[in-house]
Amino acid sequence: MSRRGVEKIEFNGDIPNFSICQVVDREEREDIPDRIEP
Predict the structure, then answer these.
(1) Residue 28 contacts residue 17 (beta carbons within 8 Å)
(2) What is the domain partition of the chain in residue ranges?
(3) d(CA 7, CA 15)
(4) Is the entire prediction scored with pTM above 0.70?
(5) Cβ contacts of residue 11 below 8 Å, gap of 6+?
(6) Backbone dihedral region for residue 2 (phi beyond 0: left; psi -120 to 50: alpha; all else: beta)
(7) Confidence band, pLDDT 50/70/90 cuts, at residue 8
(8) HEC-encoded secondary structure of the chain
(9) Which residues, including other chains, have CB under 8 Å from residue 8's CB and lie 6 or more apart?
């Protein structure tokens, strides 16, 4: 939990785009897991 909180704050201030990328990556993975996990 500590790691998640620190990462969220660090990325939020440094690169908030990363947060969005992670969320999209997760959704895309469920949509097309074959593409990431052949």
Answers:
(1) no
(2) 2-36
(3) 11
(4) no
(5) 18, 19
(6) alpha
(7) low
(8) CHHHHHHHHHHHHHCHHHHHHHHHHHHHHHHCHHHHCC
(9) 19
